Amino acid sequence: MLNQQHNSHYLSDGKIQKNPWALINHSSAQMTRLQEQTALPVIESNEVSCNILVPLENWINFASILNHATRPLVGLIVDGFEEIETLTSVIDDSGLTPDAIFIDFPVFSDGRGYSLAQLLLRLQTSKENIQLPIGAIGDILQDQIFFYWRCGFQLIIPRTDQNLELCSASLQSFSHAYQPAHCQP
Amino acid sequence: MYQYNAVDHQVMKERVAQFRDQTQRFIAGELPLAEYLPLRLQNGLYVQRHAPMLRVAIPYGLLNSDQVRMLAHIARHYDKGYGHISTRQNIQFNWPHLEQVPDILEELASVEMHAIQTSGNCIRNVTTDHFAGVAHDEVADPRAICEMIRQWSTFHPEFAFLPRKFKIAVSADAEDRAAVKVHDIGIKVRKDQGLISYDIYVGGGLGRTPMVGALIKEQLEGEKLLAYLEAILRTYNRYGRRDNKYKARIKILVKALTPAVFAERVENEFKLIADGPLSVPSERLSYFEAFFAPLTQPLPEPDLQQTQALHETHKADDSQFANWCLRNTKPHKVPGFANVTLSLKRTDIPPGDVSDEQLDAIAALADTFSKGQVRTTHFQNMVLTDVKLDQLKALYEALVPLKLATANTGYITDIICCPGGDFCALANAKSIPVATEIQQLFEDLDYMYDLGPLDLNISGCMNACGHHHVGHIGILGVDKKGSEFYQLSVGGSSRDNASIGKILGPSISREAIAGAVQSVVDVYVENRFENEDFLSTVERIGIQSMKERIYAKPAAQ
Fold first, then answer.
1. C-alpha span between B252 and B241 (Å, rounded)
2. Do A110 and B242 touch (CB under 8 A)?
3. CB B83 within 8 A of CB B104
4. Gap from A82 CA to chain B (nearest CA, Å)
């Protein structure tokens, strides 16, 4: 039953995969909420046993103490309302390019992250040094999975109480789309 | 009209299945209300005072007779025998049962109808002139563009959770019968030296902060329309306020940034996507245009003369028929034909309500007289287009017993009115009984015609579904310590000269509101110059004398 232990799995490219991501131990309201919503393991920044998700406000500090030679995959968590310029300047300043960017949806009804994803995906195609998957994290529900997927979210971490098999099945909700998007262009 | 292809049918089937599953999970307690709520709203389903209310989409107000029959069937089998035409040209059913809604959607899908995005914080039904394609004063038929916008906005994955609802209207006619300047986006089609382009207005709207939209883009190239719309929506989705639902509409953002700055942000985004996959090549537009080919061809000269002569004889023989022609028909762009408004505004029924029997009859009349097509209007009436002039008499005689021939289109008793406190959970006050009382005051036809065209609009709360801000006379229901009161305004317009009405003073009691409307009309009649319409008089004399007349009476609170 994936439902019971699904924090160990997530959707990667639309398929149920083992979830390699953990949350960094960082004290903030956002990270406390994400911990509740995802039930992902929380690890210290000096542990490098699994892939690690780090919020934007902690990124520069994290990059400075990370052993870049032996580092794991690192994912950057950003708010849906973040400006692209802020993101790129933090990444530049830190000297650490993330391996994935996860957009945080604090509540499922806040749709800003869908648009931010479009800007990020466009950045990837225009800037050669940024080639990374976009992820969705937070209040991610079965009934919106189809939208995330079409908007180009390659990595989707549904909320911990969601049935991952139903989430995966919902990608088949519609056989056709009326507008170009990252999936089904 | 547009006809579904295999893909459209498949998508509708999948939508019904999706919503059935969501509703079953909700009923079984597996899906919490807060998470089900936006899903049901995006399928047009509200929970109202007595029962759920289902709003069915009528894309840009166009129906075929089979669809009208289906609406009659739904009214009869799932509701209490009637539907209500809304100010977005949709139809609402007030009494369906939640568990039956998926079945209703399945029945609708069988005739190429749905309830998708008729509510919720997403892109709503696109509306246009109810005489689109047949109007004598249009520069182009806007319906192909409307259909393109409908498809682009349907299940748009990026814009399903906007800060607030989003309404788009398109108009290509001189007087602007689609009220584009009071929409989130208003598209005005223009034609310069044979070339179609669009003027884009943004940030208009009613509700608690009524505003007239600002022109942010002139002469947008035809093939860039969808890309430009996407740029507007993306900008709004990113920057529209989400902290306060009363300040979340795009008009607040446009005002806060100023139209110039907003336009600049949109332009920056637009530049990046203008040549992308959203660009609409002319072949693509032609594909849609082919669905809206004219239903009527010009008559040969002898036929035309005969038709016109017969029509004149009919009018000469029957003065009531002649009067109905004068009030409720409009010229068709093809000589020898007319477009007919079926008034849903007779006294004693709520404005915009239509019964199952009437719907069935309208479908049959459409087959006989108007090539099987029917329109709904944002004035909450229905329209039969393409009626041959010499057939008007027979149509009229069929409409009279159906009580669809009230000759009041555009006059004071042709009231736009929301369902109000009788049905709507949001309403502060009833609107339907107020409409009835006013209709009774002006029942004398000679008196009503003497007043000239006059838009009177009533909303039961400040959400303004009854468009009270843009009524020449507007009435807004408010709650005052648990009692129903009404704010009265004058001077609004939704037409090309769009403006927001001015409030006359403190709100007025239920007992006194109809009398106050009478006072406003009296002041107009006493002060007007010959042939001067209501708006011009109000503009010339101001509102002071109306104020004095109303508040000198004990009606004032």
1. 8
2. yes
3. no
4. 9
Q: Are strands B337-342 and B382-388 parallel, antiparallel or unpaired?
A: antiparallel
The verdict on a CB contact (< 8 Å) between B237 and A115 is yes
Copy the structure tokens of residue A29: 């309201």
- DSSP SS3 for B8: helix
Give the amino acid at B545: S
Q: Which helix (H) or strand (E) holds B200?
A: strand B195-202
- Name the pLDDT band for A4 (thresholds 50, 70, 90): very low
Say how far apart CA B16 and CA B107 lie, in whole Å: 10
Task: Report how far residue A67's alpha carbon sits from residue A90's, in angstroms, rounded to the nearest whole number.
Answer: 18
Considering only CB atoms, A115 lies closest to which of B152, B154, B238, namely: B238
What ipTM does this complex have? 0.94
State residue A129's pLDDT score: 58
Single out the residue of B389, B352, B357, B397 nearest to residue B370, CA to CA: B389
Phi and psi angles of residue B501, each rounded to the nearest 5 degrees, phi first: -65, 155
Q: Which residues contact B159 (CB under 8 A, 6 or more apart)?
A: A111, A114, B122, B123, B153, B166, B233, B237
Q: Which of B39, B155, B237 sits opposite A111 (nearest CB)?
A: B237
B552 band by pLDDT with thresholds 50, 70 and 90: confident
What distance in Å separates the CA atoms of residue A20 and residue B41, rounded to the nearest whole number? 36
Q: Over the stretch A31-74, which tens digit does the pLDDT of each residue have? A: 999 999 999 999 987 776 789 999 999 999 999 988 878 888 99
* Chain B partners within 8 Å of A109 (Cβ): 38, 121, 161
pLDDT confidence tier of residue A3, bands split at 50, 70 and 90: very low
Whole-model pTM: value is 0.93
Helices (DSSP H) in B166-317: which residue ranges? 225-239, 250-257, 259-273, 282-289, 301-317
Contact B39 A143 (CB under 8 A): yes
Residue A152 has pLDDT above 90, yes or no: yes
Per-residue pLDDT tens digits for B54-106: 999 999 999 999 999 999 999 999 999 999 999 989 999 988 998 999 999 99
Angstrom CA distances, B83 to A44, B50, B75, B339, B366, stand at 61, 15, 6, 23, 18
Average pLDDT along chain B: 94
If contacts are CB pairs under 8 Å, which of residues 45-74 in chain A contact chain B? none
Residue of A nearest to B37 (CA): A109
**B156 — contact with chain A (CB < 8 Å)?**
yes
Chain B contact present for A112, CB below 8 A: yes
Contact B105/B68 with Cβ under 8 angstroms?
Answer: no
Pairing of strands B329-331, B337-342: antiparallel
Question: Does A110 reach chain B within 8 Å, measured CB to CB?
Answer: yes
Question: Rounded to whole angstroms, how far apart are CA atoms B104 and B524?
Answer: 48
State pLDDT tens for residues B321-370: 999 999 999 999 999 999 999 999 998 889 999 999 999 999 999 999 99
The alpha carbon of residue B8 and the mean position of all alpha carbons in its chain are separated, in whole angstroms, by 25
Distance (Å, rounded) from C-alpha B422 to C-alpha B430?
Answer: 6
Question: Residue B421: what are its φ and ψ, rounded to 5°?
Answer: -65, -10
Q: How many angstroms separate the CA of residue A41 from the nearest CA in chain B?
A: 26
Q: How far is CA A79 from CA A40, A89, A113, A155, B293, in A?
A: 18, 15, 7, 16, 48
Q: What angle do CA A19, A182, B202 make, to 5 degrees?
A: 125
